[in-house]
């Protein structure tokens, strides 16, 4: 069930569907983005989602794998978007904690460069 919720949430960004976001997060949720901003409560999360989608478009958000332990999911992914006319992409990890109602209570994102290099290979 948690896996279905997180997949629907990722898809909500591709579809620009704020209604899914409203259904996904607990009223008291905490969302921490990979580059610093935090949103406290569902109303801030919804406002951020709507504001972001006014300037940007998610082009791809591919889930690579999901790990589940108790009320927590860890999701490895690749994200690509067009934001304010600039296309960018990166790898990332989400750690999502769920409440007893299967809504996200806390979500933290971490980012990694998608382009890798191999300094010790010939």
From TrEMBL:
Pfam families: SnoaL_2. It comes from Hominenteromicrobium mulieris. This is Nuclear transport factor 2 family protein. InterPro entries: NTF2-like_dom_sf, SnoaL-like. Transmembrane segments: none annotated. Residues 7-104 form the SnoaL-like domain.
């Amino acid at each position: 069930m948690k896996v279905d919720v997180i997949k629907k949430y990722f898809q909500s960004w591709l579809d620009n569907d704020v209604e899914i976001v409203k259904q996904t997060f607990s009223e008291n949720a905490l969302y921490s983005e990979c580059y610093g901003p935090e949103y406290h409560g569902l109303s801030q999360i919804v406002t951020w989602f709507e504001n972001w989608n006014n300037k940007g478009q998610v082009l791809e958000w591919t889930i690579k794998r999901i790990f589940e332990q108790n009320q927590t999911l860890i999701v490895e992914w690749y994200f690509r978007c067009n934001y304010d006319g600039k296309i960018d992409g990166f790898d990332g990890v989400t750690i999502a904690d769920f409440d007893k109602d299967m809504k996200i209570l806390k979500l933290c994102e971490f980012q990694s460069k998608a382009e890798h290099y191999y300094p010790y290979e010939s």
